[in-house]
Amino acid sequence: MEKLFLLAMNGLIWGLIIALIALGLAIIFGLLDIINLAHGDFFMVGTVLAWATLQSTGSFWLAFIVAPFIGFILGALIQQVVIQPIRNTAMLSIVATFGLSLILQESVRITYGPTPGRILPPIQSTIHLFGVDYEVYRLFAAVVAILALGGFFLFLQHTKLGTWMRAVRHDREIAVAMGIPAGRVYILTFAIGFALAALGGVVAAPITTVDFRGGVDILPFCFMAVIIGGLGNLPGTAAAAVLLAFVEGVIQSVTDPTVARIASLVLMSAVLLLRPQGLFKGLTR
Amino acid sequence: MSAKAIERSLWALFAAFMIAVPWIIPALISSFWVSVIAEILIWSLLAASVNLLFGYVGLLSFGQALYFGFGMYGVAIGIQDLGLSFWPAFALGIVASMTMALVTGIFAVRLTWHYFAIITVVFSLIFYFLALTNKWLTGGDDGINFALPPTINIGGFNKSLTDPIFQYFFVLCTAALCFLLMHRLVGSPLGKAFLAIRDNDMRARLIGLNVYLLRLIAFVLSGFLAGVAGGLFAFFGRYASATYMFYHVSGEAVVWAIVGGAGTLLGPLIGTTLFIIVREIVSTHWEHHSLIVGTVAILAVMFAPKGMVGLWNDFISRIAERSGAPVGAVELRTEP
Amino acid sequence: MSEPTLRTEGLTKRFGGLIAINNLSLSLAARRLHAIIGPNGAGKTTFFNLVSGLLQPSHGRVFFQGRDITGLKPHQISRLGIKRTLQIKSVFPQLTVAENLWITRQAGRGFLHPFRAATSDRQTRETVERTLAQIGLSSLAGRQASTLSYGDVALLEIAMAVISEPRLLLLDEPTCGMSPAETERTVSKIRELSRAVDIVIIEHDMEVVFEIADDITVMAQGAILACGSPTEIAADERVREAYLGRDEDEDYVEDAAHA
Questions:
Q1: Torsion-angle region of residue B297: left (phi > 0), alpha (psi -120 to 50) or beta?
Q2: What's the CATH code of the domain at B157?
Q3: What is the pTM assigned to this prediction?
Q4: B215-219 contacts: CB < 8 A, separation 24 or more?
Q5: Which residues of B touch C52 (CB under 8 A)?
Q6: Enclosing domain of residue A239
Q7: Lesser CB count within 10 Å: N end or C end of chain B?
Q8: Tens-place pLDDT, residues B223-253
Q9: Distance in Å, alpha carbon of C57 to nearest chain A alpha carbon
Q10: In 3-state terms, what secondary structure has residue C84?
């Protein structure tokens, strides 16, 4: 029972973090029509930036500002240099982002090193919950993730930029005709997507490991959330991420993590196949 | 000189070079490079399987490593656990990957575009994790090592892949046969139907093509190519491992095919050659060769969206135009 | 009395709450050139989509030469001999004009040879050459379809319909967007074709309709408004009303039908 509680709780919190990353993936997918294979690595860069901030300043907390900021700048740069020139050939973007993924991983391997490392949680205390000594930092991570998710949705609903992003996603041509600078929206979308993933990386850094391959595992999971939540449905994506991680956590309490992962992959294929969008794609012309 | 004539003489030159490799290359560089070329040929078949789907049918699969893995494990398990000899083990690998392609294809080809790319990754991940956990069968990350049975054993005559020259020619012949089949396929009515589906799948339905069935056929054929590649790779390394079923392997094959030139016969071979040679040269001096692979991939899609073959065709047609000869490069059509 | 080429019984198609085709029962006699006209959103293209199998009806049945074809897949319907063109010109852009015809000709067969060269089939080659000459595209045979002019693409579409030896041809606004000269050329091809094949045509250009049609069906809001010879239709009061008092909201139905 304690084990179930622990793993379910861990899953829930992990899901909230994944939701942050998956939202970044979802807006990039929704607005730019790009399958971003480097998105897991954006997360990984976040964990490394958290480590770097801790090393150079001695403060982990600073990373909550530094990492999303650097992520934002990197995202804007990458969009301008790599994505913009190939925007009208969506399929090529898979190749480009795959290349990007290799570059990011290898750069981290050169600078950070090939061996996975750990960051100690900045809050060391535990709290007694349902017969388990639960780490306070994990609860803190959940709060940060919820705040960031809430902040992102408020941003989409109530700022000019957020409205632009929704407009471009809805219908690009009409948005452009209405005078919305689509080019700038694309840059900001990619930048925000990277920043969200980097923030997720900082939040997760003390829970998981800092490793140049850290994004590889995250990526399929984020895609699952985006697909199961429904393409273009951002609240759905967030909900799916939480649900998936929670279910995986629960399954993990009775079996090993890999079997739990296989179960969620099977679940995802079922959702993909039963969704009609893919089936009738050919008719929209 | 017309484009046709240039092409024909290049083909002859290429064939002569490939046959002479085991003697020229050790003399010029070292015998190590003979096995690099054999490896290029093997991997180019995996890239060709991506190309058959993407370049000719318009479906981007990110899960070809799954069928590569089945070919590889079919051979390894066939020899190690079932005690099969060379040819039955090879056949087992190919049949296993085609069967797997059929079973997964029945579901996958119901989807197109992004959805197809994602579901192929998902399928390959499922089996990757299964291979990792079922160590009793697959050896997991450590893999299976096995001893090579003889390829030919008639009477006293005994040949096996342990002879490097024989191994090279075995790989060369198998790859050449596969590319020849691809060439015949592309020019055939079935190949034209594939192209029609790639170009406009709704129109293809309206002229009476069974789009679903044709996509499934293409998927199984690409499973065949990936399976042959996987089987050859197992023989080549006397080894099979779950690592080769990870989606990074599929991703690399996609990069090779597109950088070389999707929708062209030799594009995958050219792309694979480029990347593996870069890897082999750089990795002896510098361990971070993925940095270069990544950069080349990005530069290639930015500056040569039709791939190396696309660049070459543009170059050829410019020469032909200047000399006033008609352009006849129909076979080397590009464009995904 | 011979079997009608195309007959529908109570054909209905809903998109969510919108009714695109409402309980449509019609019967088109053989050996005639039928035109379907009507304001935007009358459900004409949806009707074609239902007949050719791209959409499945919510209710009702479709019969082709007496055979129930409701629920068949597009390629199955195509193989029965119902061929159609699309409102937005639709060919295989990366293939050459000749290849477009090749594949259209060979698509009707159950078996596509995987390894023999497509060009080695002499019968098909001759048919392709004959059709190219008949439609007047011989000089463009080797050109990639994506490089053709708009009018030539439209002719290619018609050539593709012809080479598949249709028993019923559905033409969706074949002259849409054409110059007067191109329209004239297309119209004369259609008239030539109609001697051998049953044709149903959707057309907005009334001049064209009244010039070539034997029978006209007027549709409005998913139902038949009037049916008759060109002279009868021209005199019909209700038809005039339908064209003058057009309801713009109906455009959504047509949009939904294309989605």
A1: alpha
A2: 1.10.3470
A3: 0.85
A4: B215/B57, B215/B59, B215/B105, B215/B109, B216/B102, B216/B105, B216/B106, B216/B109, B217/B190, B218/B52, B218/B53, B218/B56, B218/B57, B218/B59, B218/B194, B219/B53, B219/B59, B219/B61, B219/B101, B219/B102, B219/B105, B219/B108, B219/B109
A5: 206
A6: 2-283
A7: N
A8: 999 999 999 999 999 999 999 998 889 988 9
A9: 16
A10: strand
* Tens-place pLDDT, residues C170-220: 988 888 878 888 888 888 888 888 888 899 999 888 888 888 888 989 888
Domain boundaries, chain C: 1-81+166-259, 92-164
Cα(C169)–Cα(C162) distance, integer angstroms: 9
Facing residue for C93 by CB, picked from B199, B206, B330: B199
**Of C54, C74, C90, which is closest to B200 when you measure between CB atoms?**
C90
- Amino acid letter, C212: I
Q: Kindly indicate whether the ipTM for this predicted assembly is greater than 0.85, answering yes or no.
A: no
Choose the CATH number for C1-81+166-259 among 3.40.1390.20, 3.40.50.300, 3.40.50.1860, 2.30.110.10: 3.40.50.300
Residue B335: closest CA among chain C residues belongs to which residue?
C94
Contacting C residues, span 19-48, partner chain B, CB-CB under 8 Å:
none
Q: How many domains does chain A fold into? A: 1
Among partner residues B202, B211, B214, which is closest to C90 by beta-carbon distance? B202
* Chain A interface includes B190 (CB < 8 A): no
List subunits contacting chain B, requiring 3 or more Cβ pairs under 8 Å. A, C
Token pair of C124 as six digits: 């098909």
Burial environment of residue B273 by CB neighbours within 10 A (0 to 12, 13 to 18, 19 or more)? buried
User: What gap in Å lies between CA A93 and CA A34, rounded to an integer?
Assistant: 6
Write out chain A residues lying below 8 Å of B251, CB-based: 37, 98
Query: Which residues from A are below 8 Å from B259, CB to CB?
Result: 95
Do the chains contact at A285 and C88, CB–CB below 8 Å? Answer: yes
Please count the structural domains in chain B: 1
Name every chain A residue with its beta carbon within 8 A of the beta carbon of C91: none
For residues C131-170, b (16+ Cβ closer than 10 Å) or e, as one string? bbeebebeebbeebbeebeebbbbbbbbbbbbbbebebbb
